[in-house]
Specification:
Layout lengths: L9 H11 L2 H6 L2 E2 L6 E4 L2 E4 L1 H8 L5 E3 L18 H18 L7 E4 L16 H6 L3 H17 L4 E2 L23 H16 L10 E7 L18 H8 L1 H8 L4 E4 L3 E2 L2 E2 L4 H11 L5 E2 L5 H6 L8 H11 L4 E2 L2 H12 L5 H17 L10 H7 L3 H14 L1 E5 L13 E4 L25 H8 L7 E4 L12 H10 L2 E7 L10 E2 L6 E2 L25 H9 L5 E6 L7 H6 L2 E4 L7 H9 L54 E9 L2 E2 L5 E9 L5 E11 L10 E10 L4 E8 L1 H4 L1 E2 L5 E2 L3 E10 L2 E9 L3
Parallel strand pairs: 1-12, 4-5, 5-6, 6-7, 7-8, 8-11, 14-15, 14-16, 16-19, 19-20, 22-30
Antiparallel strand pairs: 2-3, 9-10, 13-20, 17-18, 21-23, 23-26, 24-25, 24-29, 27-28, 29-30
Helix pairs in contact: 1-14, 4-15, 6-7, 6-15, 6-16, 7-9, 12-13, 16-21, 17-21
Organism: Paenibacillus faecis
Protein name: Beta-glucosidase
Family: Belongs to the glycosyl hydrolase 3 family.
């Protein structure tokens, strides 16, 4: 059997296997049912569902989604879910049945969510991508992706539905937390690192998983910031901005891609042949697998309404270039009959099957379909990965304000009141797409501060004060009494992307947990949770204002998944930390920054407006968009790239050599960066480019390079960048990349509104 011979080329094995398959077996390879529905977990034993067995025997199953996923949507809890060892054993049971009870013994592709950690019980929960982007540390993020791949593959997961490469244009969108930020260049750098980290050097390694790029494309630019809404975008912007991170990830070797739910100019991405076959496969040479988002084909007939029924929707999708359907409903119901009736060419089905089989061969599933339960038990949630989670969370925290040097706190600073709904709510610091967690695994900000002052626990006072949402003020009195007895107040507020894990509530009058049968959800962010405002929900601002009246040093820590626009806090708080959703070690990381054990080095990857009425406020808009409103200017409160440190950095001797280059030439940009303060710290040196005059309108400034450099007190380093075609080109009038002769300005500095500039001339070729 050629297809079982690992010495044969993959292409030959694919064609041999394809030639042996019936139509039902081919269609079976293109469907992906929900994995958690294929088994029952009873008293530590795995029992396969009869419906799954029949599906295997009657044509097979190409892939399963979320065998190991646990959350309220799946209904899998800490009690009913799978431990790391048992998860690997469950995958093995599934694979064994598929291989031994199907005619051709084709292994199943196990796909899992891994946006900020393997979404399985026991796995390490890293910070959300918005925090990961804020590190500006590509190497550290790549290392994190290697850890995620190790945990996922050790349990038998072979493909992940990450990274999310959407460019955020309206932060009211609930999925902002899943994205790296608003800048396509920075996202592209993180995209390539993600693919390199997840896939490693070889896909068939026990430490590698196939990356799935999502959501292709324009998903972060939806109308009104509403999830999956229409996208109104010109072709040039699409090519220049939203497609850029995907191109970078494809160039890095990404194995899979997922079209977005949205439409662009009236064409749903799920059936956009121009993008899937034209750009992705034609221009970029992508040869991997394309899988839909969950329910996207059904949406064509009931949502977009570009198909009259499910069969028409399925035919449109596969003819446009879709290879596999997540959930599998439409493909499973309609493809075989469409072929038999002559409404769908068999060759179209065969091409999709080829891509699915090729990925399975590349992953080595035919040779090694089974997981090692002992390895899964040792790998998942390992100490090494937990330490990495703490480090990367610390680097993602952004210091927005530090009036009078109130931070870092002294270990002998007296009593500290830790107040707010996110001070000790462990799920609230984890973000969406998170599995159930035992409370002992997650360190909250309260826990992190208590850890720093473990020798004098009486110095830490705690009160929740209020909930994230709702108008109850019953906790105010207790919170104010704690604040009155303290020397410093740390207010931990923000948002929540926590699904209802049935954890109960917090007694606002005492801070104690109280278990109820119907816990009220505080969720105000996450997938499908889009907002009209960027203000704090509920009565959080009012609580902060009441505490402020006591006259104590006031430090605000935001735990949240989208920017917060609260002018009163910006003006009255002594210090502000933006921690995003920092993951399971986030409390330790926040405390590390508060007490100066970590010098903050995070920088914003999304502009934070003064008011929601300024939106869109992303930094690289066109120069013609105007400078002010009647009430205020159009500048954000905190610009892109912004972030403070406990030390200071100076820039000097900016040079561009040579000062004149041909269109295909390169120039070296260099600058001296000095730590002029008394503490060691890291500076994110940012390079921006301005095309002074161009044939089509361009942004005022565009990020084209960055370096994170670590400097001791008084240390100077010469930081260098190379500027060439990739940094100077844009999409011209003919929709082709072009480097136009003329003057460019090269800006280097600490954020987009604080740079030093030099001239670069591109002369006629």
């Amino acid at each position: 059997m050629i297809y079982k011979d690992k010495t044969k080329p993959i292409g030959e094995r694919v064609e041999h296997l394809l030639g042996l398959m019936t139509l039902e077996e081919k269609v079976g390879q293109l469907i992906q049912p929900f994995g958690w529905q294929t088994y029952e977990h009873i008293d530590g034993k795995i029992k396969l569902a009869e419906s799954f067995k029949r599906q295997v025997e009657n044509g097979g199953v190409g892939s399963l989604y979320g065998v190991l996923r646990a959350d309220p949507w799946t209904g899998v809890t800490l009690e009913s879910g799978l431990s790391p060892r048992l998860g690997a054993e469950a995958v093995n049971e599934i694979q064994r049945y598929a291989i031994e009870h199907s005619r051709l013994g084709i292994p199943i592709l196990i796909g899992e969510e891994c946006s900020h950690g393997h979404m399985a019980i026991g796995a390490t929960v890293f910070p959300v991508p918005l925090s990961l982007g804020s590190t500006w540390n590509v190497d550290l993020y790549r290392e994190m992706c290697r850890a995620v791949a190790r945990e996922t593959r050790s349990q038998g997961g072979a493909v992940t539905y990450s990274p999310v490469l959407d460019v955020v244009r309206d932060p009211r969108w609930g999925r902002t937390e899943e994205c790296f930020g608003e800048d396509a260049y920075l996202i592209g750098q993180m995209a390539a690192a993600s693919v390199e980290g997840l896939q490693g050097e070889r896909l068939d390694s026990e430490d590698s998983v196939a990356a799935t790029l999502k959501h292709f494309v324009g998903y972060g630019s939806s109308e009104g910031g509403r999830n999956a809404g229409p996208v109104h975008m010109g072709r040039r912007e699409l090519l220049e901005v939203d497609l850029l991170p995907f191109r970078k990830a494809v160039e890095a070797g990404a194995a899979s891609i997922m079209p977005a739910y949205n439409e662009i100019d009236g064409v749903p991405c799920t059936t956009n042949k121009e993008l899937l076959d034209g750009v992705l496969r034609g221009e970029w040479g992508f040869d991997g697998m394309v899988i839909t988002d969950c329910g996207a084909i059904d949406m064509l007939a009931s949502g977009h309404d570009v198909a009259g029924d499910g069969e028409e929707a399925a035919i449109q999708a596969i003819e446009a270039g879709i290879d596999m359907e997540m959930s599998g409903e439409m493909f499973g119901k309609h493809l075989a009959e469409a072929v038999r009736a002559g409404r769908l060419d068999t060759a179209v089905v065969d091409q999709a099957v080829r891509r699915v089989l090729e990925l399975k061969f590349r992953l080595g599933l035919f040779e090694a379909p089974y997981a090692d339960p002992a390895r899964a038990e040792a790998m998942i949630g390992s100490r090494e990965h937990v330490e990495l989670a703490r480090k990367i969370a610390g680097e993602g925290i952004v210091l927005l304000k530090n009036e009078g040097g109130v931070l870092p706190l002294s270990a002998a600073a007296g009593k500290i009141a830790v107040i707010g709904p996110n001070a000790d709510a462990h799920y609230n610091q984890l973000g969406d797409y998170t599995s159930p967690q035992p409370r002992s695994k997650v360190t909250t900000v309260l826990g992190g501060i208590r850890g720093k002052l473990a020798d004098t626990p009486e110095r830490v006072l705690y009160a929740p004060g209020c909930r994230i949402k709702g108008d109850s003020r019953e906790g105010f009195e207790f919170a104010l009494s704690c604040a009155e007895r303290a020397d410093t107040v740390v207010m931990v507020v923000g948002g929540s992307s926590a699904r209802d894990f049935g954890e109960g509530s917090i007694d606002l009058r005492t801070g104690a947990s109280k278990v109820t049968g119907n816990a009220e959800s505080d969720m105000d962010c996450g997938e499908g949770i889009d907002r009209m405002s960027l203000r704090l929900s509920g009565v959080q601002l009012e609580l902060i204002q009441e505490v402020h009246k006591l006259g104590k040093p006031l430090i605000v820590v935001y735990i949240n998944g989208r920017p917060i626009a609260e002018p009163w806090i910006d003006e009255h708080a002594d210090a502000i930390l933006e921690a995003w959703y920092p993951g399971q070690e986030g409390g330790h990381a926040v405390a590390d920054v508060l007490f100066g054990d970590v010098n903050p080095s995070g920088r914003l990857t999304v502009s934070i407006p003064k008011h929601v009425g300024q939106l869109p406020v992303y930094y690289n808009g066109k120069r013609s968009r105007g400078k002010r409103y009647l009430e205020d200017d159009a500048q954000p409160r905190y610009p892109f790239g912004y972030g403070l440190s406990y030390t200071e950095f100076g820039y000097a001797n900016l040079t561009v050599q040579p000062a004149s280059i041909p269109p295909d030439g390169t120039a070296k940009v260099a600058v001296d960066v000095t730590n002029t303060g008394s503490r060691a710290g890291a500076e994110v040196v940012q390079l921006y480019v301005t095309d002074v005059a161009s044939a089509v309108t361009r942004p005022a400034m565009e990020l084209k390079g960055f370096r994170k450099v670590y400097l001791g007190p008084g240390e100077t380093r010469r930081v260098e960048f190379t500027v060439g075609v990739e940094e100077l080109q844009y999409i011209g009038r003919d929709y082709k990349p072009v480097v136009e002769p003329g003057e460019f300005r090269i800006h280097v500095g600490r954020h987009v509104n604080e740079t030093w500039s030099a001239k670069l001339i591109v002369r006629e070729g």
